[in-house]
Amino acid sequence: MYKAILFDLDNTLLDYDASELDAMRRTIRHHGLHEREDFRWETFRTVYAPINWTYWIERGERQLHISQVLEYSFRDTLAQLGHDSTVSAELATTYWELFCSSCHFMNGTEELLLRLHGRVELGVISNGIGLAQRGRLATGGILHYFPHLFISDEVGIGKPNRLIFDKAVDALGVPRSEILFVGDSLKDDYEGARAAELDFCYYNPRRDPFQDGISPAYTIHDLFELHGIISGEEGQR
């Protein structure tokens, strides 16, 4: 039924949250922050998360490099908590190195890719940083499954812009009607796939409800359900 499958990466194939948490904990330990009597991990995370998100969202407008996003995030967090913020650049460097070499899979990823490899063309369309996405795929031993990688900071376009999908379609050389895009975001993935006239499979492991009018071609709650779709069997709609 489908000759090519394009995947979103974070929280579809790779567990972004687990990688971020792992890299952050290791960074804190590496620099000894956890040894301070006044350091509280949960407080640190609670303060850091919205600061980091703001810098990430503003990075394009402010022309911030990922190293600056991380350094400023650590700096502002430490300052707000009353800690020494002069180590923020070192923390950012350590965190980025650890994150780029951290790979945690979503449940079923490895088995799915093993079964799909050689049966259909595989590719990735991801909003992210190429160094991190490629590094994490390589760490997990699955980079070779994806001859087609379209990462927003390398392409210069991000989802849901249809142009990044069009680039992937052109590279695959497969008719749009024979390409399925799989992702976990209704904003970036569903809207982008719909604009590009690609069938979309919504990966929804938490079974989150969605509004009327949103109509992915398929909805799955486990990655193994893709096997039936690829084989031409009816998926949950």
UniProtKB/TrEMBL annotation:
It holds the Pfam family Hydrolase. InterPro entries: HAD-like_sf (IPR036412), HAD-SF_hydro_IA (IPR006439), HAD_sf (IPR023214), PGP-like_dom2 (IPR023198), Pyrimidine_5'-ntase_YjjG (IPR052550). GO terms for molecular function: hydrolase activity. Keywords: Hydrolase. It comes from the Bacteria. The keyword Hydrolase applies. This is HAD-IA family hydrolase. The lineage of its organism: Bacteria, Bacillati, Bacillota, Bacilli, Bacillales.
